[in-house]
Amino acid sequence: MIYRIVSKRLGEVGAEWHPSSSRDLMFCLAAGLVVPAEESTQKPKKSSTIKKAPKE
Amino acid sequence: MATSTYLSNPKVQVGAAIGSITDITDQVSAATLTVTKEALEDTAFGSTSRTMTAGLFSNTLTLTVYASYASSESYSVLSALLGTKCTIKVNPNDASDSATNPGFILTDTYLAAIPVINASLGELSTWEIEFQGGVYSVDTTA
User: Fold this and answer.
1) Strands (E), A1-56
2) Is A16 part of the contact surface with chain B (CB cutoff 8 Å)?
3) Hey, which residues does B130 pair with through a beta bridge?
4) Distance CA B24, CA A31 (A)
5) Domain range holding B130?
6) Which site from B18, B19, B20, B142 is most exposed, i.e. has the minimal number of CB atoms within 10 Å?
């Protein structure tokens, strides 16, 4: 799984990050330094618009 | 005359391992890395003075850290290391590792305690953090 840096303390924000060990991964997730790539690239869904009923 | 104004702009990084060390420089106001090689007495019969020989390294690093509970700051970073063997690196300044800016590294140093609250009215909260033991090395190459 790919992770992305979300804190400048670890490196460039948005850059891909690959854990070199499970210890690295646990630390960086717990400290809020990285997130799984899917989560960081997810965009909020657009709210659905209410369609108006056609005029008679 | 050689002088060093210490801690004017050092760099402090901590993490689970060297590959994930994170910069907490802007939350640290003091850092002391003490490298000790234990002295073992090897005085023998016939000696007229005590003599010592080198034993094991016994290293400690103490940090004075401003308490911050914001995301990715001191509480978040250090609490993830509590009770683990971790890595810490301190450079005299913010530049790359070199002979004149060596990166002092403690690997597998143990963080036993964090004073999660050290609150005094009207004062900026700080923590004294001690990392115990660990393997000492110096990185002088960028």
Assistant:
1) 3-5, 16-17, 34-36
2) no
3) B62
4) 12
5) 11-41+52-139
6) B142
Closest residue of B to A20, CA-based? B19
Please tell me whether residue A39 adopts helix, strand or coil conformation: helix
Token pair belonging to B55? 């034993």
- In this predicted model, what pLDDT tens digit does every residue of B5-56 receive, in sequence order? 655 689 999 999 998 999 999 999 999 999 999 999 999 999 999 999 999 9
How many other CB atoms are found less than 10 A from the CB of residue B72? 20
Contact between A28 and B81 using a beta-carbon 8 Å cutoff: no
B61 part of a folded domain:
yes
Domain assignment present for residue B47? The answer is no
Within 13 Å, how many C-alpha atoms sit on residue B48's CB side? 0
ipTM: 0.80
Contacting residues of A for B94, CB less than 8 Å apart: none
Residue B129 within a domain? yes
The Cα–Cα gap between B31 and B11 comes to: 10
Q: What is the pTM of this model?
A: 0.83
Rounded CA-CA distance B58/B135 in Å is: 9
